[in-house]
Amino acid sequence: MSTVLATFRAEADALGHVASRWAPDDWGRPTRCAPWSVRELFAHVHVALAWLPGMLTAPAPEAAQVSAAGYYRPDHRFSPEADAARIRFAQDRAPGLDVREFRAFTADLADRCAAEPPGRVVRTRHGDAMLLDDFLTTRVVELAVHGLDLADALGRPAWLTPPAADLVLGLLFGRPASELPGPPDRLLRQATNREPPSPALTRLNLTPLTLN
After folding, report:
1. Where is this chain compositionally biased, Low complexity type (predicted)?
2. Which among 30, 77, 84, 202 has most CB atoms closer than 10 A?
3. pTM over 0.85, yes/no
C-alpha cells in the first residue's frame, strides 16, 4: 500500500469515526462553507470521494498530465456556475446520506485503490489525466480541509491525522508539519484562508490552491 493511500484510509476513517458520534442536532448546524449545513458539507465530501469507482473502472490514460497541485488550478471547475452546481448536488444528496455506511464506503474505496498497479493513471471528471496517488492526494486535501470546517462548525477539536497534516502541508509548503511553525490544523486553516495568516506564515513559500 502506498503512503498516500494509507493516509487517505486513515483520514477518511477518522472522519467516519467522529461523525458516527454526532447528535441529530449537530447535523443541521451552519458551516463556514455557506450555504451548507454540517450534513450538506459531509455530503459534499462523500460526493468528492464517490467519483473514484468510476475512474477506476474507466480505461487508464497513457500518461499523467496533471499533478495534485495542478488539479487545483483556477479554471472552469471553480467558476460561479460550477460552484452553484456543486452546492446543489451536495444539498440533493444530503437527505439520503447514511453516515453509518461512510466508514465501510471509504474502506472499500481504499481496498479498490490498493488493488491497482503502481503508477496507475486515472482520468478525473474534469478530464485531467493524473497518477492515482496524486488524485488520492487531492481527496486527502478535501478530507483534511473540510474536516476542519466540520470540526469548527461543531465546536470540536480537530481530528486531523498526522499523516494527512504532513501530506497536505507538504503540498502547500514543500515541507512536513514538523518543519513548519505552529500547530498543523492552524497552519492549514491559515493557508486555506480560514483564518488570517500569521506573520510566520507570510514568510513561508506557499503554493496556493483554488479550493471550494
Report:
1. 201-212
2. 77
3. yes
